[in-house]
Automatic annotation (TrEMBL):
InterPro entries: CheY-like_superfamily, NreC/VraR/RcsB-like_REC, Sig_transdc_resp-reg_C-effctor, Sig_transdc_resp-reg_receiver, Tscrpt_reg_LuxR_C, WalR-like. Residues 151-216 form the HTH luxR-type domain. The modification 4-aspartylphosphate is found at D55. This is Response regulator transcription factor.
Amino acid sequence: MAIRVLLVDDQPLLRTGFRMILEAEQDIAVVGEAGDGLQALDQVRALQPDVVLMDIRMPRMDGVEATRRITGPAKDGPAKVLVLTTFDLDEYVVEALRAGASGFLLKDAPAGELVQAIRVVAAGEAMLAPSITRRLLDKYAGKLPSGEEAMPDTLHQLTEREVEVLKLVARGLSNAEIAADLFVSETTVKTHVGHVLTKLGLRDRVQAAVYAYESGLVRPGTS
């Protein structure tokens, strides 16, 4: 079945461009469009998309609040949110991730990258591009823990190997890359990631990465 996508952006020209790119793919179907967050909520309820391509700055309701409502406890469907951003709006991306977005993508990303991001998010993975993630987290270094604070008690629930995996997830590595780094199988990595998410009460890899930085386990600018 085709991946059902809802386009949310207050610029009709951008929506048209995204639609043209996505409708050229056999496994993706654009089921609707919305010009602001409130329209997006209505469309999610009516159309039940798999992925919402979400702009951040919009009238009436911004993308952060819309994301929070779409993915929150009272959500109306299985939709996952892929946030669109520009470097000028970086400060909103962290909030969108906290709100429940499954990843983010630059508005000027190549067409192939947009298509791949939608497929990754629809499959239940997180679109966590390492280069963008590091730039964001470096920018917010002053707002994150200094590393001198005590680690949260929740981290003590993890085994030593699970902590290693969490650090690598925070760096934006894929399961295959983590497997190669730790000399284990991808299946083993998936198991470790699943244990980390369950023990820490996190939804996906994006939340795990944010948690790793906010807890002080990983510092911006470090490997």
